[in-house]
Amino acid sequence: MRADVVVIGSGPAGLSAARAAAAAGVQVVVVEEAPWAGGRLACRVDTLDSPPALAGRRADQAARELVAAAGAAGATIETGTLAWGLFPGAPGTVAVRRDGRVEAVEAGAVVVATGSLPAPYPFTGWTLPGVMTAPAVERLINRHGFLPGRQAVVVGDTSEAGRVARLLELCGAAVEQVQDIESAGGQGRVEEVTVGGQTRPADLVVLAVGRLPQVELLNAAGCPIGADGVPQHDPSTGRTPLVGVFVAGSAGGAGNLAMSIGSGAIAGISAAEHVGALTRAEAAARRWDLIRQLPPPARLSAPERPLPVDEFALVCRCEEIPRTEVEDAIRAGARTVDDVKRMTRCGMGFCQGKNCTRTVMNLLALRGAATRGQAGSGAAAPGGPLRPDRPGAVELRPMRLRPPVRPVRLGELAAAGRDVSLLERAIHPEGEEPHP
């Protein structure tokens, strides 16, 4: 398969990018892992208050309108299609998996609009059944008609927390919204929680403390990722340092719907320019018209208390690695997330670090602050990694990834006519580079 522009993700940003690129006359294919298009917006039923073009619409209705607009412009949307690798170049290649088969999609330009993930918020008992993220609760209720609990504690003071709390109340659940939680306990599932030193009954804990960009495809492709999780890019064009690769929406740090839709259109215009459908002047004029209409920038935010209170709470839930084991690795000389990964297996599980990388980085930042002897000096500046300023200092950057970033069966690769080889990669003891 080949397309002028491939958009990864069919949320508001991806659909907006597809519409803008298709309107310039290029062939656009949108690949979406979920069986439906529209992203998280399609799983919500609240009434939107922005952007103006969608104000007053129910969220899922707005999602359907965005899908229809992208299709009317000429974009093709492929749902149930998982992107597991991004290989920049001229042309670039997006490796996808669908219907049990893998294939390569060649693209003149790629827009990464993969959205964001709930920020991890580890505490004792956070792996118990009954502890869920806000998007998971919204999907269960709004798409499947299932209420996951009747005594709910919603953790967070974000707009997402308020929205899911109201949804649960409308469904008849008793809801308490709190800013922090100490622990959850129970036999086989959540039966009680401890908040502010007080233990009370609960059968559902909803985490809505913040979000982080979902950028594993960009990470594995070699795009620099800042300590805040945001990929390096030019917000005025969506362009990343990778040839022909653009980023849009919350994958690029956009913190609200209006910014996501606007940044998507900007990236779509830039992608069309990259493949020659628009001149530089035409693209600049179209982007400027959009930029003038955007609200003040709003960024994604992670929780202020990103560390588990209990030293034995699990940091890596996949490999069951507690905070104490991560701290032992740091005391033993780990200076990067990758060091911790090799020493503890933290990040080697199914999620490939999505649920633990942020917490490990914050534990490393604490060590960096202690090294400098100044509280808080280990915190990285937004948008860039903390580089060692002397031997032994920590370096705050996400885990290094390699494709496939999601599970792919060897049999599927072989069936696609690819050579499948098992390679041994040796890591030099003095650094990250492999032995020659």
From TrEMBL:
This is FAD/NAD(P)-binding oxidoreductase. Keywords: Oxidoreductase. It comes from the Bacteria. Residues 314-365 form the BFD-like [2Fe-2S]-binding domain. Residues 374-386 have a biased composition (Low complexity). The gene is ooxA. One of its GO terms (molecular function) is oxidoreductase activity. Residues 4-126 form the FAD/NAD(P)-binding domain. Signal peptide: none annotated. Residues 374-393 are annotated as: Disordered.
